[in-house]
Amino acid sequence: MSSPTSTERAETAARLRNPAVVTWQGTGPTSLESVRLLLADGRLRASGRLIVAGDRQAGVEAYSASYEASLDRGEEAGRLLLRTTTAEQERQISLSRAEDGTWLVDHGHTSARDHFGGSVTVHVAGAVTFATLPIRRLNLHRTPGEFEIPVVHVSLPDLQVRLVDQTFRTVSVDERGAVIAFTQGEFSTELTVDADGVVVDYPGVATRV
Q1: pTM of this prediction?
Q2: What is the mean pLDDT of residues 31-44?
Q3: For 201-208, which contacts have Cβ atoms below 8 Å and span 24 or more sequence positions?
């Protein structure tokens, strides 16, 4: 395995400092997600939208979701604003993590605080953007490793919040990116990410276009 050259490292740094629009097409169910990403100096800003087609046979209702996410250096503090729309209802939720590790979960009409087992990561079901967060934080796209971590999981479109355990393990790394094994409960797959740790292929969920 060869190490990135100084030119390649400079090109990667330039990509991280400049906003980029990333789009994924989903197949299970049919969906389209597009996000404006800014990755710089250990911080992340993401503004995106997910549109999911309904599938009566699979019991999936059509919905759209929009999100604004920001994470400070090292994910010591961060914020997520998420809105969903179905034929019957509109919902929204905000989650913010203070430096003391406390999460505030606000549905608008109700709010609650929780430490969620020390989690520093949010996962939004079906939104590929959020698979990138723990991979980058743990640097698995550059340095091989394996971690089981607590994660604040938000389901779509109902915006239910729960604590789950997820496992990430580096399968391979090269100058183009990495392959990361991902497990949550009974579900397992291998994510392909680019040199910045952003997902390229999420088998069974979505592929970057």
Answers
A1: 0.86
A2: 86
A3: 202/24, 202/128, 202/131, 204/27, 204/28, 205/26, 205/27, 205/28, 205/126, 205/128, 206/24, 206/25, 206/26, 206/27, 206/31, 206/33, 206/128, 207/24, 207/25, 207/27, 208/22, 208/23, 208/24
